[in-house]
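Q: How would the C-alpha cells look for this protein?
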Amino acid sequence: MSQTLEQVRWTIHDVEGLPENDWIRYEILDGELFMTRSPHRLHQQVCVKISSLLNIWSELSHLGVTIFAPGLIFSEFDSVIPDVVWVTHKRLKQIEDEAGHLTGAPELVVEVLSPGKQNERRDKQAKLKLYSITGVREYWIVSYFTKQVEIYRREQAQLVKVATLLETDEIISPLLPGFSAFVRLFFP
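A: Here is the predicted structure in C-alpha cell form.
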C-alpha cells in the first residue's frame, strides 16, 4: 500500500491562527509558508534610510506615500511583508482595505536582502515572480553585503532586470519624477 502526501498550501487564514510574536514575520508565497526572525540591525538601518529618502521626496512631490513594512495581501495564498513600498495617492485609495493592508500592487516595492540562501531565493525568485504577476511596476532588491541595488522594471507585463547599481551610482526612476539619490546613501 503506498501513500502520497499532498503538499500543504498555507492561506492567510492559517497564518491568523499562528501565535503572535513581534520577533517572527510570517509570509505566504504561492501557498508556501515562510517564517523569518526579526532582521539584523544593519538590515533595519538600510530600510529606514531608504524609507526616509523616499518619504522626504514624497512629501515634497505630493505624488504618493512611502510605507514601511506594510502587509500586502494579493490572494488567500499570497501575503507578504516587503521592507518598503511607495504608492501613489490614487492607487492607495484603490488597494487599501479597512485593516490598512494593501490588497493590490503598489507602484514600487523595495526588499533588503537578509543573510541566507533561503532568504535570497525568496526575494530574488519567489517574490520577484509574485510582484511581476501582480502588477508591481518597479522592484528594488538591495544588498547591504555588496552595497548594490538591482532594479527591475515592468516591461511587456513582467518585471525585467534593467540595472545593477553600485555605491557610486545614482538611483532615479521614471515612477518618481525628480527623485535621485546616490546608492551609498542607502547604507550606514
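Residues 1-5 have pLDDT under 50 and may be disordered.

Residues 107 and 137 are 5 Å apart (CA to CA).

Upvote if useful.
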